[in-house]
């Protein structure tokens, strides 16, 4: 353990609605330790480019505002450092006499920390590398859930609840494409504010289970016949049986059609393709698709109050654990075994080796493969995470 | 004036976040008149298909929930009745001894009312046709603004505020395509939650002023050079000099490329095209586009409290005016002359003839054609409409 109190914080990867809560949690706790708190601008990129801020002098009033602001207040990066990049980071941190490096990020960030920590040990330099998780995808292993997910889940749930009533007003088929390359959690969250059995989303398609276009159409047909409308949530990461991204399949088939002249691209491709398929095959006239955008992770004012508190608290917990443990680690949220008892979180310590580069997907018990929908177990698991700050709803028809 | 108290309410056109506030406002006020309140399901379509609900028996508790629910609680319709359709409506209303018909809708709905009202007069039947405005486009003439707009504007403002911080975290160019075929109000609302001169959206393009691709690119280049990032709000209805929808221009040029083999379509086309142009011409690597979807009018939980109150109050005002006037009319919000004094609304009566089928576009004094941005006058006009229920924000970098 180093004797000095220079510590560094950085933020990496796609920002979330509450990533700054964790930042402020760490700052507030490290201030009590009388640490000199550096922040690097744009994650690890700011370290090698010597872009640092002193965070001690930010006023408490401003910290309160920063807490509630989406995006990464220190800036973020998509840099995925290799061994040499990590070595460089290590040398700079050593030169700045940094004793603790907090990196708020997803599993890529934890992997960088793992490598940097290893270097430091080998060089006999006492550097604690501390991973503070964030991701809207909720795909970190050994974590019940991840700060950032609750707010994104709330946004998606609010959006689909509104869409449910919109499509009830003007009946048709609605397809909403939700973020999530590998894990279906965020798409599954579209279900969280349903009130009645007839409420949408009526069908949910996630990357964990093979996507079949015919099954997709047949199920929409069935629902539409039943309710006169159908709301569908589709993950951007849906894959066919061969584990090929369905969006890639579409692009390929369209390239062939045009004899290579046109390459379809862009954000709307999956939703547009599926909507056209429904229109032409099922002869339903009103078919709409939306591709949910960056607002899923950044919409101002839809943060879950539960997520906000946990993101702040996990930052504080990281500081607490760091004093006790004096080694590198990833702070986490203990996995619940039962979802029906009173909701509470317990912060735990995970090894960087156990977290780094791994991806958690939806548990099979959370998804009903026959109904193409979430199970009650998922609802029990997920509902507490989005808090309670949204209107209750009703309709006449 | 008829001696009976049978009244009818219907909702038409694209629903909004507060269209049910107006519905409940009318129900609450007409209950005090001891009216027998019918609701037709799916607007005028429910009238000719004899789909009616008695609204008196809805509990107050349920009315409170309905008020806060997006979408049209009675269902809506896209039917645009011609003269014969209107005649049929008139006959059914006469048969049901309806003395007042409240239609909550946009200018199409007011046009239907205009025709129905004319028929009734000609047939010497005392039917009051009362138009209660709603539209997220804010394009009704003789109205300062329209219920529904404030909430949609708030959603768009919250979304762009979040995007501003997201793009600040991971610098690049972001293009958000906003609803609005003819009027740029909703796109302009993307500016409402900016704090600093460097905050996005940095550029705003609306249908009222001709869109030029080169100018678009040059301005993004300039902003990007200045701030290292650029957030752009583009209306879906942008037109070239020849008043042709720019999306149509894109479709055409792509059809030619593919020798007629492929017809581009779908929701993402405008944003995707513009993003690709920026990527290839300006050599900026991180360029993203989102096409904002139906959530603009239906997102649960982002309604403006000001808009909610006004939508409810305008329903009550419609009932009050109907007793005093005993003729057909459109209830409205008086146009403010000065936007800097204390914000308050005054409900007025407009003639159906003056409202029906007309479209209001952005006032030229609201837009700076050189800066491709809104003026302070627009900000003063629009800010009060979105209320105050959103977090204040700040950043470190």
Throw out a few tags for this protein.
40% helix; 397 residues; Rossmann fold; 2 domains; elongated; alpha/beta; 15% strand; homodimer
Describe the structure.
- Two copies of one chain form a homodimer.
- By secondary structure, chain A is of the alpha/beta class.
- The first copy, chain A, has two domains: 183 residues, Rossmann fold; 175 residues, Rossmann fold (3-Layer(aba) Sandwich).
- The first copy, chain A, is built from 14 helices and 13 strands.
- In chain A, the strands form three sheets. Chain A has a seven-stranded mixed sheet, with helices on both faces. A four-stranded parallel sheet of chain A has the order 7-8-6-9, sandwiched between helices.
- The longest helix of chain A has 21 residues.
Largest pleated sheet of chain A: 7 strands, mixed
Widest sheet, order of strands of chain A = 3-2-1-4-5-10-11
Look at the structure and give the mean pLDDT of chain A.
94
Beta fraction of the residues of chain A?
15-25%
Total beta strands of chain A: 13
Radius of gyration of chain A: 23 Å
Provide the low-confidence segments of chain A as ranges.
256-265
> What is the overall shape of chain A?
elongated
CATH class of the largest domain in chain A reads Alpha Beta
**Spatial separation of the terminal alpha carbons of chain A:** 66 Å
Helix count, DSSP H or I runs of 4 or more residues of chain A: 14
Q: What helical percentage do the residues of chain A reach?
A: 40-55%
Q: State the assembly state of the protein chains.
A: homodimer
What is the number of independent domains of chain A?
2
**What is the CATH architecture term of the largest domain in chain A?**
3-Layer(aba) Sandwich
Q: Helices and strands of chain A: which structural class?
A: alpha/beta
Q: Could you spell the SSE succession of chain A in H and E letters?
A: EHEHEHHEHEHEHEHEHHEHHEEHEEH
């Amino acid at each position: 353990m180093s004797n000095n109190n220079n510590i560094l914080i950085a933020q990496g990867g796609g920002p979330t609605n509450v990533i700054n809560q964790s930042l402020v949690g760490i700052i507030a706790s490290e201030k009590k330790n009388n640490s000199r708190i550096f922040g690097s601008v744009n994650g690890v990129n700011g370290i090698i480019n010597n872009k640092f801020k002193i965070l001690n002098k930010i006023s408490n009033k401003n910290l309160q505002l920063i807490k509630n602001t989406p995006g990464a207040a220190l800036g973020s990066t998509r840099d995925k450092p290799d061994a040499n990049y990590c070595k460089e980071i290590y040398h700079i941190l050593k030169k700045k006499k940094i004793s603790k490096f907090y990196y708020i990020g997803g599993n890529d960030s934890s992997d960088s920390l793992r490598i940097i920590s290893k270097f430091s040990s080998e060089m006999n330099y006492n550097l604690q590398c501390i991973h503070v998780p964030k991701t809207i995808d909720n795909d970190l292993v050994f974590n019940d859930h991840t700060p950032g997910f609750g707010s994104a889940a709330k946004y998606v749930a609010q959006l689909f609840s509104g869409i449910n009533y919109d499509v009830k007003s003007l009946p048709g088929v609605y397809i909403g494409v939700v973020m999530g390359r590998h894990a279906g959690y965020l798409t599954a969250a579209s279900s969280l504010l349903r009130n009645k059995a007839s409420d949408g989303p009526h069908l949910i398609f996630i990357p964990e289970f093979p996507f079949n276009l015919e099954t997709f159409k047949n199920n929409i047909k069935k629902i539409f016949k039943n309710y006169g409308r159908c709301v569908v949530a589709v993950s951007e990461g849906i894959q066919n049986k061969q584990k090929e991204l369905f969006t890639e399949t579409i692009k390929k088939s369209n390239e062939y059609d045009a004899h290579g002249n046109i390459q379809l691209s862009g954000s709307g491709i999956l939703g547009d393709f599926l909507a056209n398929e429904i229109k032409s095959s099922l002869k339903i006239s009103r078919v709409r698709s939306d591709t949910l955008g960056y607002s899923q992770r950044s919409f101002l004012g839809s943060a879950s109050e539960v997520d906000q508190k946990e993101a702040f608290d996990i930052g504080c917990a990281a500081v607490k654990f760091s004093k006790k443990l004096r080694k590198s680690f990833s702070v986490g949220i203990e996995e619940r075994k039962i979802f029906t008892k009173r909701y509470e979180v317990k912060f735990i310590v995970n090894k960087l080796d156990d977290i780094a580069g791994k991806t958690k997907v939806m548990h099979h018990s959370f998804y009903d493969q026959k109904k193409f929908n979430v199970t009650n177990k998922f609802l029990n698991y997920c509902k507490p995470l989005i808090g309670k700050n949204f209107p209750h709803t009703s309709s006449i028809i």
